[in-house]
Amino acid sequence: MTAMFRSLSGRNYRIWFAGALVSNIGTWMQRTAQDWLVLTQLTHDDAVAVGVTMALQFGPQLLLLPWTGLVADRFDRRRMLMLTQGLMGLLGLGLAVMVLTHTATLWSLYGFALALGVVAAFDTPVRQAFVSDVVSGEHVSNAVALNSASFNAARLVGPAVAGVLIAAVGSGWVFVINAASFLAVLIALRFVDPTQLADRPKAGRGKGQLVAGFAYVRTRPDIVVVLCMIFVVGTFGVNFPIFTSTMARIEFHRGAGEFGLLNSVMAIGSVLGALLSARRDKPRMRTLVLAAGAFGLACTAAAFAPTYWSFAVVLVFVGLASLTFMTTANALVQTTTKPAMRGRVMALYMAIFAGGTPIGAPIVGGIADAWGPRWAIGVGALSGFVALAIAVVWLTRFQHLRLRYDADTPLHLAVTHAIPVVGTRAARTAVRRDLERDEAVADRSSAV
Predict the structure, then answer these.
(1) Chain centre distance of CA 324
(2) pTM for the whole structure
(3) What is the model's pLDDT at position 248?
(4) Is the dihedral of CA 186, 89, 346, 320 positive or negative?
């Protein structure tokens, strides 16, 4: 097994990965059909309505945060996933029936989006934390990256298939296929061997368990910085359904097939970004910083793309930068959080990442309606640069960022003596040794 796919050496993770891949394809098919249904059939090219739909799906993750993270830490995650995935399948089937019987309205779709958001609020932190149950500790970072690759490989296939099906048979049958895809996850969970899952301490039933996750994060400024960066980009940058649907429909006057193709093209870069992350032995802060800046630059180029096909090409780099950013942030938080707190911290992470959508999506949709989709993408570009600035300020003030110029290697940058401000003395000493070793290696490389 190569280093890129080392997590697949475990039986449980192979089963889980296969089931999730099938379900992810169905999920992306539904997302594409849903956004196109709202934009072209339930409204007259109303980007705000698309933003409201997204807000209803992601808003519950923020509102239900104190309980969803505790559920992930207290209950059996495998059983919880069987419950949430089954409910999401039933909701997808209900929406399919409404669309096929021509009884769907914008408000009924809003209702389904809200219900799906409530279930997803519990499903997401459980599913994120479940990764650390099915793989061993040294493979968690790799498994997180492969999960992202699976999700975005599905985004490569799902939207393109959905675009063809929408044009051929309508959105209703796309929702039927999505509902059926949840069976793959349920079957995979049935065959996951619970005796091979990692042992983990479960949250107790005493007072203070709900706020313990917040208290823990307050002692980890490194996690706080990552959460701030994720909030900015997640709120104003990761509004891709608005960007692609409005650019396809309004700016380039294209149909459902071309809209689906844009999502698939972006997924090419996303899959590449996830696989490159899977090759790294561990996530690093410098990777997150560079990815934030690259995301801002890629969105800037997308906003100025003159044609449909040039826009499609730039989306590859948008996908690459965004997935590198998100995968690195996710892995940094997961691998540095105590196991007993992982569910609550990941719930906070996902709530901040997705919970900003109720704020950002309607604003970005309103900008697209008022000034055009190019300005909306410009807001996404700005979010990347703001996230970059947050990281640079923190690294400069608290982690002793030092940019070193070398005449032989003028592009060499170094962050030295970045010793965590929290943690045990032994942990700080170990980190210092690692940094000094890395710096020595860099110096020797420069001298060669």
Answers:
(1) 10
(2) 0.66
(3) 87
(4) positive
